Amino acid sequence: MALPIFVENIRDIFQTAALINNELIIRTNISGESIFSYPLDEVTPKELLRWGKKDLKGKDAHARSNGITNAKKSIDLLIEQNLKSLNISVKNKNVTEFIKKSPVLEEGGNSKTQLIASLGIAPSILISDIWAHRNDAEHEYLIPPLRDVKQAIEVAELLMLSNDTRERQAHNIEIRDVKIENLGNKSNEEDPFRLAPIPMGVIFSWEFAEKRTLFKLQYNEFKEGNYQSYIYEFKGYEHEYLLLIKASFCEKTYDREEFESTIEEFLEYIYGKSFRVREFQYNDPQ
């Protein structure tokens, strides 16, 4: 196997793959790799949540103020760490435009909560409510009612459970064509034990390396028993990258129409209007 070739442009991968763009097939498969990476030497969102729950036991004014503050901090830190893992900055122009095109902009919140919601990681309305309660406690010097503190802690807990679930279910995405599909079927018939490499298309995936998560598009070109890998590493600000991240999360969030329209939007950036998806193949057919 030759050393991988790192390309500078996303479209270079697809030019090399030379897929039949009016016979495309989209496949999903659970990654098995953690999509989020967290520093081990810092306070964690779950630890802040535990502090909030402990504060709640006091029920007095001091405990309620601390409780809602720690609940908000746990949400704030979770979002911050998620965006850092994805290598996405809300200050980037492409990211700002991505948020503006999303319907979550109408739901309030700040740019980070809107981005997280736009990517399908978490709902923005509940988080926005918690921000409002905390601002009342910090800037208006109001003591939050016990009910608001409980709500903040429960929302933070639900967000973390949702975050863990989304991470486990995040999918790699393969873009192949009918030619590769037929070669794969033939390979399975002739090589049932899969001793030879399986023909595959262009794959969006991620891996943890050097204390951070790397996101990439990869295509392996097979020639005379050997293969050459072509890789594009995402920088974190490409519109195509944001669409693929969204698709990786939203495929399992009850709305496959959203997944399919997001993939088609990505393909339009690659091929313009001259493409057709023949089939979407899910690893857990409904």
UniProtKB/TrEMBL annotation:
Domain of life from the UniProt record: Bacteria
Protein name: DUF2303 family protein
Organism: Shewanella japonica
